Amino acid sequence: MDKTAINSRTAGRRNEKIVLSLLAGHGPLSQSRICEMTNLGSSTVSTIVSRLREKQWIQETPLPSGRRGAKPVLIRLNPQGGHLVAVEINPHTVRIGLFNFHCELTDQISIPIGTNHSVENVLRLLEINIRGLVSKADIQPDKILGIGVTLSGSITPDGIVELSSPLGWKMVPLRRLLEERLDWPIELYSTKVRLLAEIRSQPSLQSKNIIYFNIADGVGSTFLIDGRLISGATRRSGEIGHITILPNGPQCGCGHRGCLEALISGPALLKKMLLETADLGETDFRRRLAAVRSPEQALEELAEAVRSRNPYALSVRNFIADHLCYAAAAAVNLFDPDVLILAGYVNQPFADYFTQRLYEYFPDHVYDFASRHIEILPARAGKGALIQGAAAALFQNTISPF
Prior knowledge:
Strand content: 15-25%
Order of helices and strands: HEHHEEEEEHEEEEHEHEEEHHHHHEHEH
Helix content: 40-55%
């Protein structure tokens, strides 16, 4: 008897999520249409709709009808029925977004971390500012369905950050530490979720095979193959930034030397430019670099110098392009994409130039390139891509029946 009751409850929750997934994917539906699409009986669907109504997760709109009897009703997700919190942790800031039950951003804040990357400092900032954002929006705690956190690094299924080279973290039980401070379920995601934000901004990408090549504080890639995000046996797929490019080269945060990330990530480029401009006597450009507060601002200065045709700046842009072309060609040979997306604050200011260089490089370095049709696109989801992606992943987890 107990087993039957448990199975009944499990089936009920699964059926609720099936209906929620349909409403999220197809928009407003009638009960009869839900029955057709799910093969569930009308009484079962009525029960599900009643439970979702009690939770305030749906809205119902009667439609005009000339027939006698009950009027047809359209059912849709209630945007205020639940809320999601998404968090991005990077070496410079903590960005927190509040999303409604349509996965739409309703508010966000960005808090500088400064030079203190300690786990305790980040936890403190998150606890104070997440609670503050929820309180500011006057949302009841039980309406927060969960918190999705994303950061660059290797994350185990049980929420341990095994290594985040940009943050300098190793073996941090981040999920447990956050759950001890906050009252909501916590999910941790790698930066692969930013591709979900890109797909939301360009829905046609859902049917494509994609390489998403991000160069920012770290260097990484994400693969969408046959409609699925590729994770790998230990969820570490796409660590293209840790391919050794220059043996005995600069030290990387992962502990190895000469990684792609140690050469063309934002922090690596800032370090490179400060050293080289001092040696070359590039006093004006170096003075501007010395005044920046982050590698992202340094790339803005580099872009401005490139526009002014500064010879040294042009050489740095070409240095990035050379390494990008090498790594992208290898990724294309391995994963055979339709689309290559250039993302991150290193790629962004030079996307047109890098696209041209890639199209020039690929014919001699990509196998059978003449028979491929690869579209190279700049990322469009913007600076909020990571919190948008974390919210999309958390929303999918919340409503997915499987």
